[in-house]
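Appendix B. Worked example

We walk through a single record from start to finish. Start with the input: the chain for YhzD-like protein, Oceanobacillus chungangensis, length 61.
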Amino acid sequence: MVSYFLTVFDQSGEKLYDESFIATNNSQAKEIGLRKLKELEFTEHTHRCVTADGKLLLFHR
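Next comes the structure step. The output line below is what the pipeline stores for this chain.
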């Protein structure tokens, strides 16, 4: 199990959402991250999903 971090920003760079979660691999983490973004209606906001060691999995500007 690996820790991942999902963060969403507004246009000024302020955090709108910041959550950590656990997944078994990067593929599952991408699925979880995308599902959360859709649930919270943040798919068009700037966002990123990274591993605990900083590897970028998702990014939208």
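Two observations about the output. The CA atoms of residues 46 and 61 lie 4 Å apart. The mean pLDDT is 96.
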